[in-house]
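> forwarded from #structure-qc
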């Protein structure tokens, strides 16, 4: 828990901590939130639009604390997001399906809804 506190004291770049609502997850009742950190170099919005944001997604048994020692470096040139997957870190802990395919779909759905709520996050890749 001590390291989680450090994220707000040792990171020198502007940091915004927020909870993003993800409400429509198949088979999960109620409202759920994904804890998100947004960091950036503090440039103007126009200058920041030229760079693709970096989104960090942790693996299982992890959370945003995984990147504590690297956040300043990773976010020095572009807006950077890291978030706790549902059921991890400070995100909500909904009762997900026991069926592996349905649980996978629920995770993907929650990430897609998170992305839709974060206006400047676009999906890039091959």
């Amino acid at each position: 828990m001590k390291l989680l506190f450090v994220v707000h004291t040792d990171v020198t770049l502007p940091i915004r901590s927020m909870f993003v609502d993800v409400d429509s997850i198949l088979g999960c009742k109620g409202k759920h939130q994904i804890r998100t950190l947004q960091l950036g170099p503090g440039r103007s919005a126009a200058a920041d639009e030229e760079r693709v944001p970096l989104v960090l997604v942790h693996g299982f048994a992890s959370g945003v604390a995984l990147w504590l020692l690297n956040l300043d470096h990773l976010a020095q040139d572009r807006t950077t997001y890291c978030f706790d997957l549902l059921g991890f870190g400070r995100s909500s802990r909904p009762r997900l399906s026991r069926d592996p395919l349905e649980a996978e779909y629920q995770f993907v759905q929650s990430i897609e809804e998170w992305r839709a709520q974060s206006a400047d996050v676009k999906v890039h890749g091959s």
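QC bot note: The CA atoms of residues 87 and 93 lie 4 Å apart. The two ends are 37 Å apart (CA to CA).
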